[in-house]
Amino acid sequence: MKFKVSMKTPDALDDAIRETVVREIGMYSSPDIEEFKYVVEDRCNEVKETCKRWFEYGEYVTIEIDTDAGTAIVVETRQ
Fold first, then answer.
1. Nearest-angstrom CA–CA distance, 46 and 48
2. E strand or H helix at 50, and its extent?
3. Quick one: angle between helices 33-51 and 12-26, nearest 10?
4. Which residues contact 64 (CB under 8 A, 6 or more apart)?
5. Are 58 and 14 in contact (CB under 8 A)?
6. How many helices and strands in the chain, by DSSP H and E?
């Protein structure tokens, strides 16, 4: 059986991206806090742009479940 589940996650994507970017950039950052903020924001925007492929408006995601195949696939948005 196949079915789709749509979920609205308003802050989940932004929070996950920001946490990951801060952790990754933090390892290589300079002591200049303003530069750090700029680099984090720039990188977050890049990742959010990539995620538009699967998240509509940055918060809606649809997953197609196939119980016969035992799979769950994130459905691409209609851009």
1. 6
2. helix 33-51
3. 130
4. 2, 3, 4, 72, 73, 74, 75
5. yes
6. 2, 3
For the entire predicted model, the pTM comes to 0.80
3-state class (DSSP) for residue 49: helix
Lowest mean pLDDT among 4-18, 28-42, 65-79: 28-42
Distance CA 13, CA 30 (A): 26
Encode pLDDT of 40-49 as tens digits. Answer: 999 999 999 9
Contact 39, 29 (CB under 8 A): yes
CB 39 within 8 A of CB 30: no
User: For the chain, first and last CA: distance in Å?
Assistant: 27
Q: Which residues contact 5 (CB under 8 A, 6 or more apart)?
A: 62, 63, 65
| Token pair recorded at residue 29 | 């950052």
